[in-house]
Design goal:
The structure is a single chain. The chain is of the alpha/beta class. Among the domains are: about 160 residues, GAF domain (Beta-Lactamase, 2-Layer Sandwich), CATH 3.30.450; about 120 residues, 3-Layer(bba) Sandwich (Glucose Oxidase, domain 1), CATH 3.50.30; about 120 residues, Orthogonal Bundle (Enzyme I, Chain A, domain 2), CATH 1.10.274.10. The chain has 27 helices and 22 strands. It has an eight-stranded mixed sheet. β13 and β14 form a beta hairpin. α6 packs antiparallel against α8, α9 runs antiparallel to α10 and α18 packs across α19. The longest helix is centred in the N-terminal third of the chain and has 27 residues. Bound molecules: phosphoenolpyruvate and magnesium ion (MG). Magnesium ion binds next to α22. The site of phosphoenolpyruvate has 11 residues, from β16 and α22.
Length: about 775
């Protein structure tokens, strides 16, 4: 059974389009279950009707025409109950509905299984038989398993818009893709696909401009791959037996013109650029090998893929092949990282769309600091087909609209104008203090990482830096920066904000922040080697960084050092020991510098309950609410599947935050918060009411938070917090705070007027 399942799934996945996938599915299921009929009904959510989309055993003419209302017939029952229905005499069931066009009269046995993807009902798969018999448990389990696999295929087709064609929905309605808000705001621009090196999934199709040039690029890449294979073969001749070495000859032959290379050339001649042609040919052969019965031949699929990736890697080195960057680029890719800012000038980036990630992944944080409308976690997205198309990035609702209708563009332009107006209004508070209507003062600091943050932060009146993410300059390099290089980078930050304090966090890598030159491979990276754990294991990295920070602060003395991911006093002890050592070293070397204050980030639940112990060892604490939320709720901050469970307004998160501020204040230790919650006006109001004196946020959130805090009183915020303590779930808390801000006339600082009252995702942080 397992082998049959595996083969059907492979064949379905290799089908060129949804119709063929459904045809393959019904044919194979009917054969392997030995039934007379197998049919698939898909649900058209617009029409609220099922349509027969593929069948073996019913009349083929009925495909596309036989239809049932959502609640009609046994199919409707399966969908509504969201569970299989297994009957030995379907016609006698009260819900049975006879569909004349299918000619299904003589069938008695009926087994229908819903097709569901991520809680969404997509259709129903049905098997039928003349005899009166109940399908046995094994058959039912078989169909349930296949249906779950089919769900992913149908969902993908739905996400890529190809299902619209199937339902005849070609009214020019824009295709919309749902994701998660990375940075609020709206952008209209042209799709510009950035693809990671050597990955077929995100290689787009592009028209070839100069066939001769394209062929030359291909020949050069082939030559280099052949040379690699020969080198590998020579190396292997010392260790591998002759029969294994033959593999290298097979590889070389695959590169011949009468094999892969010839086919790729033909695709280029037909008009696709060489990377697209390579992808088409390689993936076709990989799918063909994977579907083979013979285990040996099946294993050849990975050889073809490997060879293809080698060619692709060389092709992607040829920078000249990159499409020109549009004026207003919507930068899209499977996993966009902050390094895009190295390759693409900031002024060209209108918006960002990333298939992976969530609102608290680092790409989103950097996008927010630069105020670039961003949608992440889009999941199923036909990257390769979107290059150059017009897109709207709706960073309020977390949606991407492809080829929007003119009317839709006009609506979004209106939102952009409203945002521009609002920004102008916000500027009026730039030089005013962040003070509530009843005179309570809050310090507004910024989070920085890129040099670009500095100017925006200063322009917006930041009172200091609450978190400088030192890993960002590490991420955009191809090796660790030297002590001198680090010193120069840090000095720029310290000088720019002088005399205001700059809180530099020691290198916080691991989790979702990796350095290409220091890869960390772990099954569970967020629970693994992260932050202080890495740097304490590598004192040579830690000491160099601290020394660079200390030298950079010479004669400025506005440096504060902060330790990430601390979970025990031992870690603080060890880090303090190294910091003192570095301090003595630089003093001995002649530096004129004061010992900076050292703080600890509260990011893991263990730290929450040891505040009083931690503050004995350090000068201040700062809450990293992004990680704290992730660890308290056990929700990966990057995983789009559980993004809706990542709730900063969760009562447990709020209670932990209150516990931290109370404990720190009892000990007289300054406490701030530098997670994304500080930059959301709704949570900022609550944090202020809890007693947080310093909020550190993306520069682009600063004026909005200040505007809102200047319009409320501490007393009203505290009353609101009292009400919140009585609430037991995040959604209710969030709506309640929204309502309060709406009533105070501050709604437009959270979402555009056009969206007010409409159901929208709650943007985590304002731009
Ligand atoms: C946090 O975890 O809240 C934080 C500020 O650190 P980062 O987002 O860089 O992990
Ligand atoms: Mg963190």
């Amino acid at each position: 059974m397992l082998e049959t399942l595996r083969r059907i799934v492979q064949e379905v996945n290799a089908a060129p389009d949804l119709s063929s996938a459904l045809d393959v599915m019904v044919a194979r299921v009917r054969l392997s279950m030995g039934t007379e009929v197998c049919s698939i009904y898909l649900l058209d959510h617009n029409a609220n009707r099922y349509f027969l989309m593929a069948t073996e055993g019913l009349k083929k003419e009925a495909v596309g025409t036989a239809t049932l209302h959502f609640s009609e017939g046994l199919v409707g029952q399966v969908g509504m109950r969201e569970e299989p229905i297994n009957l030995d005499d379907a016609p006698s069931h009260p819900k049975f509905r006879y569909l004349q066009e299918t000619g299904e009269e003589p069938f008695h046995s009926f087994l229908g299984v819903p097709i569901i993807h991520h809680r969404k009902l997509l259709g129903v798969i049905v098997v039928q038989q003349r005899d009166r018999r109940r399908f046995d448990q094994e058959e039912e389990a078989f169909l349930v398993t296949l249906s779950a696999q089919l769900a992913a295929v149908v969902a993908h087709a739905e996400a890529t818009g190809s299902i619209d064609g199937i339902f005849g929905n070609t009214m020019g309605v824009a295709t919309k893709f749902d994701g998660v808000v990375g940075c609020i705001g709206v952008a209209i621009g042209s799709a510009f696909v950035v693809y990671p090196p050597a990955d077929f999934k995100s290689v787009p199709d592009r028209p070839v401009k100069n066939i001769r040039k394209e062929m030359k690029t291909f020949n050069d890449a082939l030559k280099r791959v052949r040379a690699d294979i020969r080198a590998l073969s020579e190396k292997a001749s010392l260790t591998l037996p002759p029969e294994e070495q033959a593999l290298f000859q097979v590889y070389e032959r695959m590169l011949d013109d009468n094999a892969l290379a010839g086919e790729i050339r033909a695709h280029v001649q037909a008009g696709n650029w060489v990377q697209g042609a390579l992808r088409e040919v390689v993936l076709k052969h990989v799918a063909a090998f994977e579907a083979m019965e013979d285990a040996y031949l099946r294993a050849r699929a990975s050889d073809v893929r490997d060879l293809g990736l080698r060619i692709l890697a060389y092709l992607q080195e040829a920078k000249t092949l990159t499409a020109p960057i549009p004026e207003r680029a919507i930068v899209m890719g499977e996993d966009i990282t902050p390094t895009i800012f190295v390759d693409i000038p900031r002024e060209r980036i209108a918006g960002i769309v990333s298939l992976h990630g969530s609102s608290n992944s680092h790409m989103s944080i950097v996008a927010r600091s630069l105020g670039i409308p961003t949608v992440v976690g889009v999941g199923e997205f036909p990257l390769s087909r979107l290059e150059g198309l017009q897109l709207i990035v709706d960073g309020h609702r977390g949606e991407v609209i492809v080829e929007p209708a003119q009317e839709v563009v006009r609506q979004y332009q209106a939102i952009i104008s409203e945002q521009e107006e609002l920004s102008k209004e916000l500027e009026s508070v730039t030089d005013l203090p962040c003070e509530t209507t009843d005179g309570h003062r809050v310090n507004l600091f910024v989070n920085t990482g890129l040099m670009a943050d500095v100017n925006i932060s200063l322009q917006r009146g930041a009172e200091g830096v609450g978190l400088y993410r030192t890993e960002i300059p590490f991420m955009v390099r191809d090796r660790f920066p030297s002590e001198l290089e680090q010193m120069e980078i840090y000095r720029q930050q310290l000088e720019a904000f002088y005399p205001a304090p700059v809180t530099m966090r020691t290198l916080d890598i691991g989790g979702d922040k990796s350095l290409s030159y220091f890869p960390i491979h772990e099954d569970n990276p967020f629970l693994g080697w992260r932050g202080i754990r890495v740097t304490l294991d590598h004192p040579e990295i830690f000491l160099v960084q601290i020394r660079a920070m200390l030298w950079a602060s010479e004669s400025l003395d506005n440096l504060r050092i902060m330790l990430p991911m601390v979970s025990s006093v031992m870690e603080i002890d060890e880090a303090m020991h190294l910091i003192h050592r570095a301090y003595l070293e630089v003093l001995e070397e002649g530096a004129h510098v004061q010992m900076p204050e050292v703080g600890v980030m509260i990011e893991v639940p263990a730290a929450v309950y040891q505040i009083k112990d931690f503050v004995q060892q350090c000068d201040f604490i700062s809450v990293g609410s992004n990680d704290l939320t992730q660890y308290l709720l056990a929700v990966d901050r990057n995983n789009r599947r559980v993004a809706s469970l990542y709730q900063a307004f969760h009562p447990s998160v709020l209670r932990a935050l209150k516990h931290i501020v109370d404990a720190a204040r009892e000990e007289g230790t300054p406490v701030s918060i530098c997670g994304e919650m500080a930059g959301d006006p709704r949570s900022a109001v609550l944090l202020m009411a809890m007693g947080y004196e310093t909020l550190s946020m993306s520069a682009s959130s600063l004026l909005r938070v200040k505007w809102v805090l200047r319009k409320v009183s501490l007393e009203a915020a505290q009353t609101l917090l009292e009400q919140v303590w009585k609430m037991d779930n995040a959604a209710v808390i969030k709506s309640h705070v929204d309502l309060m801000l709406d009533r105070a006339g501050l709604g437009s600082f959270i979402r555009p007027t056009l969206f007010q009252g409409a159901s929208s995702q709650e943007p985590p942080v304002p731009a």
